[in-house]
Amino acid sequence: MVMDSRTSEVAGYLLLIEQEMRTQGLWSDRVPTEHDLSSLEPFSVDRLDFEEWVQWIFLPKMKVIIEQGHPLPNVSGIRYMAEHVFGQRRGSWKPLLKHFESFDLLISPSS
After folding, report:
1. 99 pLDDT higher than 60
2. Residue 47 burial by CB count (10 A; 0-12/13-18/19+): exposed, middle or buried?
3. pTM (2 decimals)?
4. Which of 23, 26, 32, 46 sits CB 3.0–4.6 Å from 51 for a disulfide?
5. Which residues form the YqcC-like domain (predicted)?
6. pLDDT reported for residue 111
7. Between 102 and 1, where is the model more confident?
């Protein structure tokens, strides 16, 4: 199995996302219910806040992909969703949005 050359950089962005979420007070110790985690909607918008989706679904799934050497996804629009969500809230979201944008650019295939 050949490791994707982007894997360590992706892992770094995932850590930066988690760190910034903690800094911004978006990290929670409250685990969502199995029902909430089983949503089939994009970003689980019907059951979770965006930051809950990032913490409890996105980051754990990406961690499994990296740890088990699965192929990285080839598309991500997480920055656009984050921009939509945080654009409606007060706060300094630029660092977090930048990490999401860097992740998206790294994941998306070069043109």
Report:
1. yes
2. middle
3. 0.90
4. 26
5. 10-105
6. 45
7. 102
Instruction: Please state the rounded mean pLDDT for residues 17-31.
Output: 95
Report d(CA 10, CA 1) in Å as an integer. Answer: 18
Closest to 38 in 3D by CA, of 49, 48, 26:
48
φ, ψ for residue 3 (rounded to 5)?
-80, 135
Q: Residue 70: count other Cβ atoms within 10 Å of its Cβ.
A: 13
104 touches 77 (CB < 8 A) = yes
Q: What's the CA gap between 43 and 53, in Å, rounded?
A: 6
Contacts for 62 with CB less than 8 Å, ≥ 6 apart: 10, 14
Q: What confidence tens digit (pLDDT) does each residue in 56-67 have?
A: 999 999 999 999
Tell me if 52 sits within 8 A of 32, measured CB to CB: yes
How many Cα neighbours within 13 Å face the side chain of 12?
A: 7
